[in-house]
Design a protein that fits this description.
The protein is of the alpha/beta class and 355 residues long. The strands form 3 sheets. The protein has a 7-stranded parallel sheet with strand order 3-2-1-4-5-6-15, with helices on both faces. A 6-stranded mixed sheet has the order 8-11-12-7-13-14, with helices on one face. It has a two-stranded antiparallel ribbon with strand order 9-10. Helix 1 packs across helix 9, helix 4 packs parallel to helix 5 and helix 6 packs parallel to helix 8. The chain starts with a strand and ends in a 19-residue tail after the last strand. Bound molecules: NADP nicotinamide-adenine-dinucleotide phosphate.
Length: 355
Amino acid sequence: MYRVIQWGTGAVGVEMMAAILDSRSDLELVGARVYSDAKDGADLGELLGRAPIGVRATTDADAILALDADCVLYTPRTARVDDVCAVLASGKNVATTAFMFHPRRMAPVDRDRVLAACEAGASSVHGSGLNPGNLSGVLPLALSGMSRRIDSITLQERADWSVYESTGITFDNMAFGQPVDSIGPTSTEFLAFNSSIFSEQVWFLGDALGADLDEVTADVEAVAAQRDHDIFGHPLRAGTTAGQRWSWKGLRAGETRVEIETLWTVGNEYPGHWPTPRHGWTLTIEGDPSMQTHFVSLASFTRAAEMAEHVRSANVATAMQVLNAVPAVCEAEPGFATSASLPLIYNSEAFGRQP
Ligand SMILES: NC(=O)c1ccc[n+]([C@@H]2O[C@H](COP(=O)([O-])OP(=O)(O)OC[C@H]3O[C@@H](n4cnc5c(N)ncnc54)[C@H](OP(=O)(O)O)[C@@H]3O)[C@@H](O)[C@H]2O)c1
């Protein structure tokens, strides 16, 4: 039995907590770190809208560090290396959706102090999710098992964020609704951070598959809204940023070998000059053989579901990729545990047991 703490109980965190309570005989939820005063002291069962479970949330990070636990599920809106170092040094492993996808290519100063914390606490840290995560890590590696030669890998993500209820991430962090000329790979602390994790993911594929990349570049084109929108009560004004086309390219001798491109809109105005892959994620490998796969998650392909439930399915996928990794992360050698160094993450109880 692994004792786990939820750090961040937003859209992704609540899916993890619900899964632990409903379907995991190997995981026990022993605490949660929250940020808002309204949630401080709340019972975790009640936070999920169910019967109390006798475990309370706290805004006190020190109280969390003092708890006896095997792993912290780290899913705050804004990730901090300091938090993770403190958790690791306290002897708890960390599994996160927020960052640490390919720590070898993190800023050296951060990488070194995370490693020192892992050594101090004999603990390990793993970052994954949907993208960055499975679709830009596990899936391309799995497909490469059928390759004789790879010339290039491209992952395109096409998504409209209007349906994504984490408006703190959409507007505060990703700066949708801000002036178009204020969007750049280093123009705010968060945009720089966000760009760095996708750059890391390009490095991850390049390093894991022997691409010998010289550099990874980051570019973004921001596009203005044609009209006003209302997104979960948050106004998006005409003329402000409603589209962001990001591209992170891993180059060898000037040629693109690995690319992640995101085609993100809010308000569903799709720029006419952008490429038009299907909604979701399209992974294309040019080589011998060339391969392409398209991924989309829904609440169901057979029964009718509300849009909100379909949207939630991506949070479930993000959350489960990391939750299902907890046993492997707890058993890993101290240090960085990546999608290339951990065994294949799968849910061996996905079908549930006979009642
Ligand atoms: N890898 C992937 O594929 C993937 C996909 C989706 C999301 N993510 C990442 O996963 C994380 C969680 O996403 P989410 O959609 O669950 O986010 P979210 O719903 O917006 O928020 C998560 C939590 O952040 C907390 N928070 C509030 N103020 C904060 C602050 N100043 N600093 C840090 N946290 C604060 C909130 O706490 P309270 O509830 O107490 O207010 C909330 O529970 C994010 O880092 C996101 O970027 C990764």
